[in-house]
Amino acid sequence: MSAVKLSAELKSLRRQPTWTLLAADKAPIVIALLQTVLLDSDKVLPSSALHERVLHQMTLLRGLGEELDRSPQAYIAEWLTQGWLVRRFPPGAVEEEYELSSDAMTAIRYMQSVMKPRSTATESRLQTVIQQLSRLAHETNANPERRMEALLEERRRIDQEIDEVSRGVVKTIADERALERAREIITLADDLTGDFRRVRDAFADLAKELRQSLVEGDSSRSQVLEHLFEGIDVIAESEAGRTFQAFWRLLTDPVESTLLQESVREIIARPFSRELDRHERRFLTRLTTSLAAEGGAVQDVQQNLARNLRGFVQSRDFLEQRRLHGLLQESLKTALHLKEQLRPNSWVNYTLTLSHASIRSISQVRPDDPLIRGVATDMEDAPPSELDLEVVAELLKHSEVDFRALRAYIRNALTEVSQISIADLLQKYPAQQGLGTVVGYVALGVKHGEVLPEKVQVTWMGLDGTERAASMPTIYFLRERIDEFA
Q: Above 80 in pLDDT, residue 82?
């Protein structure tokens, strides 16, 4: 590639959000705020929570002498304009939600790699390259003799290892190499988050392009329109859609997902994993849940975009927007035809009625005075209540979940064991509020525990003395998060 072409591409990249974030005047502060608020903890926040957390972090920075003269709302609006944040309004939500854009995620990941670089030419990375190249050469080899030789060699190696294990000889890699491989796996898995964001952005861009082409009435897009009316999901059939569906099938495959969960549990239990820091252990523990959540979010976006696109085509909005687009195109052609005949300041003998609004001074507004309506001032004495404080306390006990008691149960149990499930908690501590106790444990588990897809049956004694049972996902509370139940 010539320097001219490369410089042109780099100039184009310099206008992209990733580069503008790295080159911003207050890049260290902005990256620190974005990473702290929307990456290290929650990756999606409602508007009120985001403003509150940004304000808290800004207060800490101002205490150290940093010049932050604008409000959190102003900074967040600027980050949206720059393309560093993405704002969405999910169906059923009461307020808009914010998350990092894929470009901002790329910039933050780059800075993390600079601040904490990986060891160059590590053994695990080299071994990964060798294994992948060997596997590719093997799977693309159409020579039966070479394939047979490779299979026989693999069988000899397996037979030798079986013979050694049967004699009690088990070879394991050193803890240093195991730790190195574990961190390499964490890095690769962490990069999947950015891949999910890019796939989701690709779906959004594809839906926008399809909608624009349909409105413009391009005859070359007639096949897309026919597919939509026939019920074909054009987004799922795109290149990005097929790639994601293949990944999603692998992630949701029962055999593969079970293998992934068991492997994570075994690695966490190994002695070398104690050398991992708290963030790395937490990432491994939540790996399956995080991948499923990120993949599920992309799946929902894909389905919603396809559903909205199909609804748009089948509604009158599509016809109306297409009609308006045609009128605008016709007006533009007429204007281009007349631009050589009429000057901009020529009188065309046409009056255009503009919309307007009446403006009144605030001094003309008169506040409402309740005394003018003659509100009655006499009040009758209410009959004395038959409730006392004990009755009210008993009603509250049965109407609201006692989360304080549930947190205490979990905390006490985790001082004895490293992890405990909801089923074990119900056996250890009676369900004081019946079904309410179970619902409370589930609410705390979703927020502070580890949720696994496997179903488990739990039993408890109801308030009427009848034993009840229910099927629910397996939820564990871990000792390393005991501080969250204080």
A: yes
Q: What three-state secondary structure class fits 179?
A: helix
Least Cα distance to 161 among 88, 153, 406 occurs for 153
Token pair, residue 133, equals 């190249």
DSSP 26: T
Task: Give residue 388's pLDDT.
Answer: 55
**Alpha carbon distance 247, 240 (integer Å):** 11
| Cα 385 from Cα 382, distance rounded (Å) | 9
How confident is residue 390, by pLDDT bands cut at 50, 70 and 90? low
The pair of structure tokens assigned to 92 is: 């059923």
Parse the chain into domains and list their residue ranges.
Answer: 3-115, 175-337, 399-485
Average pLDDT over residues 119-126: 56
Q: Is 238 helix (H, G, I), strand (E, B) or coil?
A: coil
Per DSSP, the three-state class of 367 is coil
Architecture of domain 3-115: Orthogonal Bundle (1.10)
Q: In 3D, which of 290, 180, 169, 307 has the Cα closest to residue 233?
A: 307
Q: Are 180 and 122 in contact (CB under 8 A)?
A: yes
- Helix H or strand E encompassing 404: helix 403-414
Q: Write down the pLDDT at residue 231.
A: 44
**What one-letter code names the amino acid at 45?**
L
Contact, 257 vs 265, CB < 8 A? no
Long-range contacts of 42-49 (CB under 8 A, 24+ apart): 43/99, 43/100, 43/193, 44/97, 44/98, 44/99, 45/97, 45/98, 45/99, 46/93, 46/94, 46/95, 46/96, 46/97, 46/98, 47/95, 47/96, 47/97, 47/98, 48/95
Per the CB < 8 A criterion, the answer to whether 319 and 313 are in contact is: no
> Starting at the edge strand that comes first in sequence, how are the strands of the sheet with 85-88 ordered?
44-46, 97-100, 85-88
DSSP state letter for 23: T
The predicted model scores a pTM of 0.50
Residue 99 burial by Cβ neighbours in a 10 Å radius (0-12, 13-18, 19+): buried
Residue 415 contacts by C-beta under 8 Å, 6 or more apart in sequence? 479, 482
Residue 395 has pLDDT above 60, yes or no: no
Least confident of 113-122, 254-263, 279-288, 363-372: 113-122
